[in-house]
Write a structure and sequence with these properties.
204 residues, mainly alpha, 6 helices, transmembrane
Length: 204
């Protein structure tokens, strides 16, 4: 397994080739579609968040301390992915892979806390089919959690690829778009934290 790239790379290896530029552009278009999708889920949740004929309300359910820690973990993982791309631009493969691994660990921690949170809610009577509020909540937050899980798997595979192939103009765009994706799901979580949890506690 090689931990060194071969030869000097351009200053911005992720867009050094036409293929790399196309990957980055294509990924921005993909994120645009994701914004529309999440926008629909947010709109649905906002419309249904007070529809609680049966089961606990948002104010009764949500514990901001727990969600606050989840938010801190995910935002910290966004910072470590920034460190990874900075290392990539310095052509330091070992540091790049290290920070990506830390990002994955934070992502797994976030998922663990979210699963724990969901289990607690189910025990309190907040199931997927309990009310329109619970259905829209689990759909939105669970859909985001699935994106985090996908990101964890994706970055893990890229780490393994980086160990095998090193840092090249072919692998660099893959690292770059994965970091973009991670920033996107972190940004979506900020909106979820605000719209779902904060509004659930103070906006009812």
């Amino acid at each position: 397994m090689s931990t060194h790239h071969t030869g000097a790379l351009p200053a911005n290896p992720e867009t050094a080739t036409l293929e790399g530029k196309n990957k980055v552009l294509g990924f921005w278009l993909f994120l645009g579609a994701e914004v529309v999708l999440f926008g629909c889920l947010f709109a649905t949740y906002i419309a249904l968040r007070n529809s609680v004929p049966d089961g606990p309300t948002a104010d009764e359910l949500f514990k901001l301390k727990t969600v606050g820690w989840s938010t801190f973990i995910l935002l910290t993982s966004s910072l470590t992915s920034v460190f990874a791309i900075m290392a990539m631009h310095k052509q330091k493969l070992g540091q790049l892979l290290f920070w990506l691994a830390v990002t994955v660990l934070f992502g797994l921690s976030f998922l663990g806390m979210e699963i724990y949170e969901f289990v607690e809610y189910v025990h309190e009577g907040h199931k997927f089919t309990t009310s329109a509020f619970s259905t829209s909540f689990y759909t939105l937050v669970g859909f985001h959690g699935a994106h985090v899980a996908f990101g964890v798997c994706w970055i893990t595979l890229l780490i393994l690829q980086g160990l095998r192939k090193g840092l090249t103009v072919v692998t660099a765009p893959k690292f770059y778009v994965a970091a973009l994706y991670w920033h996107f799901i972190d940004l979506v979580w900020v909106f979820i934290f605000t719209v779902v949890y904060l509004m659930g506690k103070v906006g009812h």
